[in-house]
């Protein structure tokens, strides 16, 4: 069998660049959401940031997730089309290195990940970014401000509350729960899951920062919120808030930067 020519590598803007494996795993977890997002355009920046903004095929989840200090050694910004996000996530989950090197071959339309200590490389076939189904491209950069215009209330979310929500969803099963309501009652915010004719659960999130003038009862797909909250890493000092309002998306905001916006659904 003829040996494949591995010499022609269009290093270009990425020659000598490295990826922080832990940070890339964190980013991929936030974007993939257990399969809700199957492909994406990965933005790699000269200053070390890596991130994705995408919208799922049902137009129900919009995400804006960026990680600082994920990349080193880039000479300019590069956007790469990731056609199989699950495969890339599995690869990075299998790596125990702190960082690995990579280069982008424009000629072969691949990104080549190299593990020097293991003397191995993985050639990941890229996809034309124009063919990415989740691609979100807009000249308007004020995504968050516009999403929060209608989300007039906000409440903090703790790791304990998140874990309780995920556990109760798993206990009831998604088929029984289906939808989750963000409900205000007596000035407090509650997450209510299940259906009135079946099993239900309720989690008190406490009082919002803003005074609730009237009751709000917004409904979202529980499967979407389950996946999003499951992807949140409550590290040291991480601030997580839920922003909501009448006929408004539910915005899960991390440190006032990264966010997921979930579309409201009808009953």
Q: Would you spell out the secondary-structure blueprint of this structure?
A:
Blueprint: E1 17-20, H1 21-32, E2 40-44, E3 50-55, E4 61-67, E5 71-72, E6 78-82, H2 85-93, E7 99-105, E8 110-115, E9 120-125, H3 143-150, E10 153-156, H4 159-172, H5 174-177, E11 179-185, E12 188-194, E13 200-206, E14 217-221, H6 222-230, E15 240-244, E16 250-254, E17 258-262
Antiparallel strand pairs: 1-5, 1-7, 2-3, 2-6, 3-4, 4-17, 7-8, 8-9, 10-15, 11-12, 11-14, 12-13, 15-16, 16-17
How would you explain this protein's 3D organization?
This protein is an alpha+beta fold and 267 residues long. The protein has two domains: 12-131, DNA Polymerase III, subunit A, domain 2 (DNA Polymerase III, Chain A, domain 2); 146-262, DNA Polymerase III, Chain A, domain 2, CATH 3.10.150.10. Helices cover 21% and strands 35% of the residues. It contains six helices and 17 strands. The strands form three sheets. The chain has an eight-stranded antiparallel beta sheet, sandwiched between helices. β7 and β8 (110-115) form a beta hairpin. It is elongated. The protein starts with 16 loop residues before the first strand and ends in a 5-residue tail after the last strand. Mean pLDDT is 88; it is low at 1-11.
């Amino acid at each position: 069998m003829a040996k494949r020519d591995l010499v022609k590598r269009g290093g270009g803007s990425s020659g000598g660049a490295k990826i922080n494996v832990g940070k890339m795993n964190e980013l991929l977890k936030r974007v993939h959401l257990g399969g809700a997002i199957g492909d994406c355009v990965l933005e790699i920046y000269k200053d070390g940031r890596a991130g994705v903004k995408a919208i799922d095929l049902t137009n129900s989840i919009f995400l804006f997730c960026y990680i600082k200090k994920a990349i080193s050694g880039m000479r300019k910004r590069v956007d790469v089309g990731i056609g199989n996000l699950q495969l890339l996530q599995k690869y990075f989950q299998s790596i125990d290195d702190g960082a690995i090197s990579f280069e982008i071959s424009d000629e072969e339309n691949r990104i080549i990940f190299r593990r020097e200590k293991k003397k191995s490389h993985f050639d990941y076939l890229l996809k034309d970014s124009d063919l990415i189904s989740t691609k979100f491209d807009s000249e308007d950069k004020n995504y968050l401000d516009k999403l929060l215009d209608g989300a007039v209330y906000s409440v903090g979310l703790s790791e304990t509350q998140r874990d309780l929500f995920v556990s109760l969803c798993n206990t009831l099963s998604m088929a029984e729960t289906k939808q989750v309501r963000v409900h205000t009652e007596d000035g407090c915010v509650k997450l209510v899951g299940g259906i009135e004719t079946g099993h239900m659960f309720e989690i008190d999130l406490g009082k919002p920062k803003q005074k609730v003038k009237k009751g709000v009862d917004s409904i979202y797909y529980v499967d979407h919120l389950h996946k999003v909250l499951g992807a949140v890493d409550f590290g040291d000092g991480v601030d997580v808030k839920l922003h909501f309002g009448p006929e408004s998306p539910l915005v899960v905001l991390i440190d006032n930067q990264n966010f997921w916006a979930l579309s409201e659904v009808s009953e």
